[in-house]
Amino acid sequence: MKISICVGSSCHLKGSYDIINLMKEHLEKNDLTDRVELSAAFCLGRCTSTGVTIQVDDEIITGVCPDNFESVFNQYVLGGKLG
Ligand code: FES
Protein backbone atom coordinates (compact mmCIF):
# COMPACT_ATOMS: atom_id res chain seq x y z
CA MET A 1 0.00 0.00 0.00
CA LYS A 2 1.22 3.48 -0.81
CA ILE A 3 0.29 6.49 1.27
CA SER A 4 1.19 10.05 0.28
CA ILE A 5 0.58 13.01 2.50
CA CYS A 6 0.37 16.37 0.80
CA VAL A 7 2.86 18.95 2.01
CA GLY A 8 1.91 21.56 -0.58
CA SER A 9 1.51 25.06 0.80
CA SER A 10 -2.23 24.87 1.50
CA CYS A 11 -2.03 21.50 3.24
CA HIS A 12 1.15 22.49 5.02
CA LEU A 13 -0.75 25.33 6.66
CA LYS A 14 -3.48 22.89 7.71
CA GLY A 15 -0.98 20.70 9.55
CA SER A 16 0.58 18.19 7.15
CA TYR A 17 3.33 17.44 9.61
CA ASP A 18 0.88 16.58 12.38
CA ILE A 19 -0.81 14.18 9.98
CA ILE A 20 2.52 12.63 8.99
CA ASN A 21 3.35 12.08 12.65
CA LEU A 22 -0.07 10.62 13.39
CA MET A 23 0.26 8.34 10.38
CA LYS A 24 3.68 7.11 11.50
CA GLU A 25 2.41 6.44 15.02
CA HIS A 26 -0.63 4.57 13.77
CA LEU A 27 1.37 2.49 11.30
CA GLU A 28 3.79 1.52 14.06
CA LYS A 29 1.04 0.75 16.52
CA ASN A 30 -0.60 -1.56 13.97
CA ASP A 31 2.68 -3.13 12.92
CA LEU A 32 2.24 -1.98 9.33
CA THR A 33 5.43 -0.03 8.68
CA ASP A 34 6.83 -2.82 6.48
CA ARG A 35 3.71 -2.99 4.37
CA VAL A 36 3.18 0.68 3.68
CA GLU A 37 5.29 3.05 1.64
CA LEU A 38 4.79 6.45 3.25
CA SER A 39 5.82 9.55 1.39
CA ALA A 40 5.20 13.26 1.19
CA ALA A 41 3.71 14.72 -1.97
CA PHE A 42 3.42 18.17 -3.45
CA CYS A 43 -0.03 19.62 -4.08
CA LEU A 44 -2.36 16.78 -5.03
CA GLY A 45 -4.67 19.31 -6.69
CA ARG A 46 -7.44 18.92 -4.12
CA CYS A 47 -6.73 21.66 -1.59
CA THR A 48 -9.57 22.24 0.88
CA SER A 49 -10.06 24.62 3.75
CA THR A 50 -10.89 21.82 6.15
CA GLY A 51 -7.66 19.89 6.36
CA VAL A 52 -4.89 17.98 4.68
CA THR A 53 -5.18 15.92 1.51
CA ILE A 54 -3.80 12.40 1.55
CA GLN A 55 -3.66 9.67 -1.05
CA VAL A 56 -4.03 6.00 -0.18
CA ASP A 57 -3.22 4.00 -3.29
CA ASP A 58 -5.62 5.41 -5.93
CA GLU A 59 -7.94 7.07 -3.46
CA ILE A 60 -7.69 10.76 -2.60
CA ILE A 61 -9.02 11.78 0.81
CA THR A 62 -9.42 15.47 1.61
CA GLY A 63 -9.98 17.35 4.83
CA VAL A 64 -7.90 15.09 7.07
CA CYS A 65 -7.21 16.62 10.49
CA PRO A 66 -6.27 15.27 13.92
CA ASP A 67 -9.95 15.06 14.89
CA ASN A 68 -10.93 12.73 12.07
CA PHE A 69 -7.59 11.02 11.55
CA GLU A 70 -8.56 7.89 13.46
CA SER A 71 -11.64 7.24 11.36
CA VAL A 72 -9.81 7.97 8.10
CA PHE A 73 -7.08 5.55 9.14
CA ASN A 74 -9.58 2.87 10.09
CA GLN A 75 -11.56 3.25 6.91
CA TYR A 76 -8.87 3.66 4.28
CA VAL A 77 -5.80 1.99 5.73
CA LEU A 78 -7.12 -0.78 7.96
CA GLY A 79 -10.29 -1.12 5.89
CA GLY A 80 -8.33 -1.12 2.64
CA LYS A 81 -6.44 -4.06 1.29
CA LEU A 82 -4.37 -4.36 4.46
CA GLY A 83 -7.43 -5.09 6.57
S1 FES B 1 -1.69 21.78 -1.18
FE1 FES B 1 -2.43 19.80 -0.65
S2 FES B 1 -3.88 19.34 -2.18
FE2 FES B 1 -3.11 21.27 -2.73
What brief labels describe this structure?
83 residues; Glutaredoxin; four-stranded mixed β-sheet; globular
Question: Briefly, what is this?
Answer:
With 83 residues, the chain is of the alpha+beta class. Helix content is 39%, strand content 25%.
What does this structure look like?
The model has no long low-confidence stretch (mean pLDDT 95). A four-stranded mixed beta sheet has the order 2-1-3-4. The chain is globular and about 30 Å long. The N and C termini lie close together (11 Å). With 83 residues, it is an alpha+beta fold. It has one domain: Glutaredoxin. The protein has three helices and four strands; from the N terminus they run E-H-H-E-E-E-H. The structure holds FE2/S2 (inorganic) cluster. Residues 6, 8-11, 43-47, 53 line the site of FE2/S2 (inorganic) cluster (FES).
Write the layout of secondary structure elements.
Elements (H helix, E strand, L loop, with lengths): L1 E5 L2 H5 L2 H14 L7 E5 L10 E5 L2 E6 L1 H13 L5
Parallel strand pairs: 1-2
Antiparallel strand pairs: 1-3, 3-4
FE2/S2 (inorganic) cluster (FES) binds next to α1.
Topology order in helix (H) and strand (E) letters: EHHEEEH
Give the overall pLDDT as a whole number: 95
Taking the sheet with the most strands, its summary is: 4 strands, mixed
Q: Kindly state the percentage of residues in helix.
A: 25-40%
